[in-house]
Every structure is written in structure tokens, then in C-alpha cells.
Backbone:
């Protein structure tokens, strides 16, 4: 058996798979986020351990025999969090999370140093780890002076599991300290934030072993000795391993609270000017790109709250047949936008409203606005040298047939729907645990699920969608000029 542990923002999920990758069972435990000031987002690392134990104990209650057969563990986790430890591994302050924006000034200052984009292949976003350490140095110098280790969230779980200070490439690529092309820490970038490599965890690939489970934990959970803990992956790379998105040209679009267009790459293809993320993948000699939009199903849920109708009712009102875009255009920038604008201050808008603009027309515009935002990410990936021929859709928004048709037509690409199953980060982490333990071929293990159905673009509406996308593109600079 192989155990995947996924440390998310809202909870920890534990999943057991067998040697044939059949899911045996899963359990979860909830986490809370502390927001002591506007723009702050923190968690106590002790809560991660509590939640991980709770989830594993949940598996022990229902699948004790399977848990006893675990030979490898894979880790996945929320990225970018700054977990600061002293020389005795004591936590110095609550972890500053990925969605914390307090370090926006520090991020801008680091981003103005050309070596950061040149070496990392990415803009220095406020959510990344390096600007958080710059903020701590400026605002909590007594804490900064005691920093002996900087760990990412899942790697703090690894420290608890194994006693090792280790990380892997996909998660570390989101710190702004990794030379992403060379897959190693950059002494120059660390020095720019008054740190050095001695304070960083040892780097391995996600498919490598990165410690063994401590005997006291193995005994507590009824496991044997020598349980391997894999390097693992950041959450999106782990999800890609679960989805089988690991080879050149493979891609998925995730319609969750936020939206992600994720493409696997056989080479390093940065394009920071378009706010595309270029990170190492969890598999050796593999990279990936991500376009990220901040409001996907979040935009529909906002519209649901305004209209007093459920999201399902709103989309059902449109029927199954895709319609040509109306005169109404929606920009889904309810909390700013990442790709391609890197603009935290911009906000959303309806444009082209008239007396005839019904609730259904507004719903249609919301879905199209998100589809066009994903098209922006596709164009950004193309500018970085990535060519896609199809994408797989996952996430809650993929339950809407109308939305899938809209996305397929906006991208002018077929959209595959996977057969039922759980192919998320915990499953991907378990796969990495299997690979690290057995030495199996990563590509042979990380296969894609069967396709249940393919949604093709509505050929007759592609020109109308293209015209509407051009109108959508013209709105951002106009709204920015009018509202900033």
C-alpha cells in the first residue's frame, strides 16, 4: 500500500492506494486560517500535524490492515508558505500562507531586481516565499535573526514524519529562490533576501526518496520499518501527477474557486512578462507552466449570491445549447487578476448592459468571462512556446455542460472529461510514494484516466467567440485607466 498526504489550506487529506493504484480509502481533517489583519493569512504548523494525525487515524479506524501494509508515503501541499524554524526546529511564528498579501511592497522591490525573473523564470508575486522573508526581516527583526530553517508547509510535515530538512523541485520553484532551469538554489537570490543555502532544505526530485518514517510514528500507525517518504510535490504538480499530465503537450484546466491552465513541458519555457508560472514538475527533467485566474467558480458563486439563485439553477437556465455571445461582457477580476495582468488592484465589471439584459444574459456573460480569462492563459502559454491540442477539464465548474462548451469554443480546442474518480493531489502524492519506493517508471505510473467524453468547439460559433474575446481584451486597459 502507498499513502498520499495532501496538506491543503482548508484541510489535510490522506489517501491509500494499492500497488495497482486502486484507491482503497481516504480520510480528511479540517484546518482553519487566521487573519489577524487585513491581507494577512496564517496557520499554526502544529495544526497541520494535528490534522495529519487525525486523517491518518481516520484511515486506521476503517482500513487498519491496509495502513499496516504501507511501504511508501508521498506528500503534497499548499505552496509558497513561509514556515520559519530556529536551530532546534521550534516554530518561530505562524506560517505566512500563499494567499497572504502583506509583502506586496517587498515583492515589488525584489521583482525590480532583474536577476529574480532571469533565474526563477517568474514574477516575484506577493504570495511567494522570498518577499515574506523580506517582510519578516523588516517588521520582525528579532524573529528573522533566529531563522535557522525556512520550510514549505508540506516539508514541515516531512520534518515531523522523518526528522529530515528536505524539499523537492516543484514546490521550491515557487519560493523565488530557485534557479528553475538548473533545478538548484540560487545563492545570489538568497543573498538578496539576506539568507544563504544553509538555511534551505536539501533538494531532491519529487520521485526520489526523501527520508524514512520515524519508528515511533510507524509503531503508532501499525506500520513496519523502513517506510519511504517521497520528495512529493506542490499541490498543482501533485494534481498533475494524479491526472497523468506529465508529458509534453498534456494539459488540464481546473475550474475551482480559482482557475488554472496547467501544461507539462519537456523543457524550461519561462515567460514572466505574461505572468505565466514556469515551475519544475515533480518528475525529473520535466517542467510545467501555469496560467492562473483568481476567480473561476468564485465568479459564478458571486453572481449566485447577487441573484439569489443557486449556481446550478443559473447554468440550467441557459440550457445545453451554446449561444453566441450577447452584447454584455464580464471581466471576472473580483479580487484582481494573475495571468496575464499581475494586477491585484483591478476589479470586475459588466459592460454593455441594456434594458434587455436579463438574468440569463448576465449568467452567460459570467461564464464567457471566465472562459475568456482561461483563453488569456492559453495565449500566454503560446507566447512562451507551448502548443496545446486538447485539455482535460476538472473541478466543480466542469459539471456545467454549457460552461464546458463555452471553454472549448473560446479556446477552439477539444475538452476531455475524465471518467469518474479522484485524481487530485492526494492521489498524485500516493503515486509519487509508489515510485520512490519501487523505482517504477514515473511516466508508466502517472497515466491519464480514461476519457468519458469529449466536448468539441461549436464550429459555427468560433468566429462570434473570437470577436467577443477581442472585445473582452479591449476592456481591461479601458477599465484600468478609468478606475485607477
Residues:
Amino acid at each position: 500500500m502507498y499513502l498520499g498526504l495532501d496538506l491543503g489550506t482548508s484541510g489535510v487529506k490522506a489517501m491509500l492506494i494499492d500497488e495497482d493504484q486502486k484507491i482503497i480509502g481516504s480520510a480528511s481533517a479540517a484546518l482553519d486560517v487566521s487573519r489577524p489583519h487585513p491581507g494577512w493569512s496564517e496557520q499554526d504548523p502544529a495544526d497541520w500535524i494535528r490534522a495529519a494525525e487525525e486523517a491518518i487515524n481516520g484511515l486506521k479506524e476503517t482500513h487498519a490492515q491496509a495502513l499496516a501494509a504501507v511501504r511508501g508515503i508521498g506528500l503534497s501541499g499548499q505552496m509558497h508558505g513561509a514556515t520559519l524554524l530556529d536551530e532546534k526546529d521550534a516554530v518561530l511564528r505562524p506560517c505566512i500562507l500563499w494567499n497572504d498579501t502583506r509583502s506586496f511592497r517587498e515583492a515589488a522591490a525584489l521583482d525590480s531586481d532583474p536577476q529574480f525573473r532571469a533565474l526563477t523564470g517568474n514574477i516575484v508575486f506577493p504570495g511567494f516565499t522570498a518577499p515574506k522573508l523580506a517582510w519578516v526581516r523588516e517588521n520582525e527583526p528579532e524573529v528573522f535573526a533566529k531563522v535557522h530553517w525556512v520550510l514549505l508547509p508540506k516539508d514541515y510535515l516531512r520534518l515531523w514524519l522523518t526528522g529530515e530538512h528536505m524539499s523537492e523541485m516543484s514546490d521550491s520553484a515557487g519560493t523565488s529562490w530557485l534557479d528553475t532551469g538548473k533545478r538548484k538554489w540560487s545563492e545570489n537570490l538568497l543573498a538578496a533576501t539576506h539568507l544563504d543555502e544553509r538555511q534551505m532544505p536539501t533538494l531532491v526530485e519529487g520521485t526520489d526518496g526523501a527520508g524514512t518514517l520515524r519508528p515511533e510514528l510507524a509503531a503508532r500507525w501499525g506500520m513496519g520499518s523502513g517506510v519511504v517518504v517521497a520528495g512529493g510535490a506542490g499541490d498543482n504538480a501533485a494534481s498533475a501527477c494524479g491526472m497523468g499530465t506529465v508529458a509534453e503537450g498534456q494539459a488540464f484546466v481546473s475550474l475551482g474557486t480559482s482557475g488554472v491552465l496547467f501544461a507539462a513541458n519537456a523543457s524550461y519555457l519561462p515567460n514572466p512578462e505574461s505572468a505565466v508560472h514556469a515551475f519544475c514538475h515533480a518528475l525529473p527533467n520535466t517542467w510545467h507552466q501555469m496560467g492562473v485566474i483568481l476567480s473561476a467558480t468564485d465568479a459564478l458563486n458571486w453572481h449566485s449570491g447577487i441573484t439569489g439563485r443557486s449556481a446550478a439553477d443559473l447554468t440550467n437556465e441557459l440550457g445545453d445549447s451554446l449561444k453566441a455571445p450577447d452584447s454584455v461582457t464580464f471581466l471576472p477580476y473580483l479580487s484582481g487578476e494573475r495571468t496575464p495582468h499581475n494586477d491585484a488592484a483591478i476589479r470586475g465589471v459588466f459592460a454593455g448592459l441594456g434594458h434587455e439584459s436579463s438574468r440569463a444574459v448576465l449568467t452567460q456573460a459570467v461564464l464567457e468571462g471566465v472562459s475568456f480569462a482561461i483563453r488569456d492563459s492559453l495565449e500566454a502559454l503560446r507566447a512562451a512556446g507551448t502548443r496545446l491540442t486538447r485539455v482535460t477539464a476538472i473541478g466543480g465548474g466542469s459539471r456545467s455542460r454549457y460552461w464546458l462548451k463555452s471553454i472549448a469554443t473560446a479556446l477552439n480546442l477539444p475538452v476531455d472529461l475524465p471518467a469518474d474518480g479522484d485524481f487530485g493531489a492526494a492521489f498524485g502524492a500516493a503515486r509519487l510514494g509508489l515510485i520512490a519506493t519501487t523505482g517504477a517508471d514515473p511516466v508508466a505510473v502517472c497515466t491519464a484516466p480514461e476519457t468519458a467524453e469529449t466536448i468539441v468547439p461549436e464550429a459555427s460559433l468560433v468566429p462570434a467567440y473570437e470577436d467577443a474575446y477581442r472585445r473582452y481584451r479591449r476592456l481591461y486597459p479601458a477599465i484600468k485607466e478609468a478606475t485607477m
Observations:
- The first strand starts at residue 2 and ends at 7.
- The mean pLDDT is 95.
- The longest helix spans residues 359-383.
